Amino acid sequence: MSQPPEKTPARDTPAQGALPLGNTALETHGHGGRAGEPAAKDWPGATPAGVVYTCPMHPEVRQDHLGACPKCGMTLQPVPAGQTPPEASGASGSAAGHHHHGHERGHGHGHAQAPQAVPAAADPAQSPKPAAPGTIYTCPMHPQIRQDHPGNCPICGMTLEPLLPDLDDDNPELRDFSRRFWWTLPLTLVVLALAMFGERLHLMDMATQSWLELVLALPIVLWAGWPFFSRGWQSVVHRSPNMWTLIGLGTGAAFVYSVVATTAPEIFPASFISMGRVGVYFEAAAVIISLTLLGQVLELKARSQTSAAIKSLLGLAPKTARRIGADGSEEDVPLTHVHVGDLLRVRPGEKVPADGVVVEGASSVDESMLTGEPLPVSKREGDKVIGATLNTNGALVIRSERIGSETVLSQIVQMVAQAQRSKAPMQRMADVVAGYFVMVVVAIAIATFFIWGFFGPQPSWVFGLINAVSVLIIACPCALGLATPMSIMVATGRGATQGVLFRDAAAIENLRRVDTLVIDKTGTLTEGRPAFDRVVPAEGFTSEEVLRLAASLDQGSEHPLADAIVQAARTQGLALSKPENFESGSGIGVRGQVEGQPLALGNTVLMEQVGVAVGPLMQQAESLRSEGASVMYLAVGGRLAGLLAVSDPVKASTPEALAALKAAGLRVIMATGDGLTTAKSVGARLGIDEVHGEVKPADKLTLIERLQKEGRVVAMAGDGINDAPALAKADVGIAMGTGTDVAMNSAQITLVKGDLRGIATARGLSVGTVRNMKENLVFAFLYNGLGIPVAAGVLYPFTGWLLSPLIAALAMSLSSTSVVGNALRLRRSKV
């Protein structure tokens, strides 16, 4: 992309685009512009006839008219009769900007196409509540699997989960498995007691005992274990063997062998006979089923905690709002009845019901639940407020600007949910192993059976059967599959509560490797809210005249620098004229006519184009730039009328953030379109040694590429449209949440508050998460690598010790739970 240079008074128009997050196209609260429309309008087939409205986050909410969801406040989306809404990541967005005094133009388009639904048979044993239209279900281990109804993953057999969790915490699989476990546990204990003590106590003859164990084990295996056999059969049908294949084979082999040994013992050869009878192993089948159920219950409970962050975010929105009527009356109304433009009173201690702007009052608002900022933020007339934040002391009246799915809260929830379902690059090795794992385990089990049968001690074939069952049961592909997804789910949720939004798992994994950080100045190091400084008039002009003419021309611009000049003129009570024939030059300034006079306002390049020499004011301009101000020249009728200086103060948190980043070993570089003198002045104050000024988007791209060729892993932090190409090119792009949507479209990480301290937080979380994933993978590989040979009996020649199928079942049940439990440690780790 070739772009004009970005000179001293850098400006561009805030993007009128949208960031594709979930089912909605949304804008951030940090700048003006129209609100994004619901993404449902973007997909084909939406017609007024037969339309019902549902919530993308709570699809059980359905009604025949437009409104907001009573549970989360999101705007309901139309679902035509017979049509399924798009998946949560299926929205698309685009943004474009206009050019003003010295900023470049950039385009950014975000497209996310949801994977096609993969059919998977529902588990007949579970009987979950019917799926509401619009709900999309996915697999925690295989996020590419998506469908519009509950069921099991055709790859691994795990029960599919809704893309977005529900606040009611109802998990039909957890309820079902708990019921099966507790109802059959007494039977399992009786079967186990008979197997261990029946012969010693001589309560009955062995044949009768075998029949009694058979009767007791039947409901355990055929009812409690039915989901395992059902999923195992599905894995065969889908030609995707998984953990349930192994459990079904192991449990089925032990049970069928025992049934035949009980009903027809005479068919077995002498090599199967021990102590005068053919042994039965009903207790092995029963205990394996019960322990597997227990392991699943523990794992499901642990996994439910990984989505705790999203659930806490969903619970932030208030249920009602106090609306002020046109006659001044006030009433409490459900959040569903709040519309854009409504005046809402927020009393002390209440939550802000919607994103909006303060029109009356002053207070401090606690935004920590969304931005991670621990201190309340002062709010007064004209300031933006975020829905679901807490008003602490004063009373406010706000005008709602974004409701439902257009709020910052909904945007965060959708982005976190999307990131949680992405796959980390580190998982690829585990996926490759898992692709061959089950068949290798089955081959080892078969080899174990025959090796023991031919070469083992008597009863050799019984030893072969038991050891083969142990091999099948102890193997746990789920520990491999869950190793990174659980860590990613916890990390993205933890980041969201601290104002750091990761787009996907790759961003988390890559950020820890970054050693160089390239930072834009305006809106990143500085507040991004320029304030008018002063006017220096040329000979023959007054300060008031220069400011009035410049402000009149700047009324045609939407750039923050232009806004600062216009506001300064209005504050001084100057009468502004309407500009005509307004034009914005790409990266150099603006032109037009005011009161019949041709005007040009911009940098030295624009002055050269209109043939105006800036020499008389060059010294003053350089002096102002050395103080960190941005300078614009005004030409009137081909004459230099003066210069205007606008300052953008450095964020209070910037010095602390830069110190933390340097302490972490990062090389910090400033690259800005502002003038080189101004850039060096700001860099000197902040201790940034390497400064690049007057750069255009192509220059930023070149800088990123040069650093990458030097072997550097580069992160780029910025907030403007002109930053988008560099954000996309960098190894990790970091966007300020107070910036433009196109910048966030191009970035992998968004800092909700726009505070650079969030980069240090994100990097710490990245380091901790990758370490956690490695721990999980090492555990999963070691567990299977050591457990399977031990179950096969490799220690028997040296120790005379064999692994019981009961111990194998216990180990398998705890392995997945251990992986999830280790991932949950990230919620409390220091970052």
Compact overview of the structure:
By secondary structure, the chain is of the alpha+beta class. The protein has 25 helices and 34 strands.
Mean pLDDT: 77
Sheet/helix structural class = alpha+beta
Gyration radius from CA atoms, angstroms: 33 Å
Measure the end-to-end span: 38 Å
User: What fraction, in percent, of the residue positions are helical?
Assistant: 40-55%
Q: Give the amount of beta strand, in percent.
A: 15-25%
Largest beta-sheet details: 7 strands, mixed
Count the beta strands.
Answer: 34
Regions with pLDDT < 50 over 5+ consecutive residues?
1-49, 80-132
So how many helices? 25
**Arrangement of strands in the largest sheet:** 22-34-33-32-23-30-31
GO biological process, one term: copper ion export
GO molecular function: ATP binding; ATP hydrolysis activity; copper ion binding; P-type divalent copper transporter activity
Family: Belongs to the cation transport ATPase (P-type) (TC 3.A.3) family. Type IB subfamily.
Membrane topology: Multi-pass membrane protein
Considering the chains and any ligands shown, give keywords for the structure.
single chain, 831 residues, alpha+beta, Calcium-transporting ATPase, cytoplasmic transduction domain A, Rossmann fold, Calcium-transporting ATPase, cytoplasmic domain N, seven-stranded mixed sheet, six-stranded antiparallel sheet, elongated, disordered N terminus, hydrolase, translocase
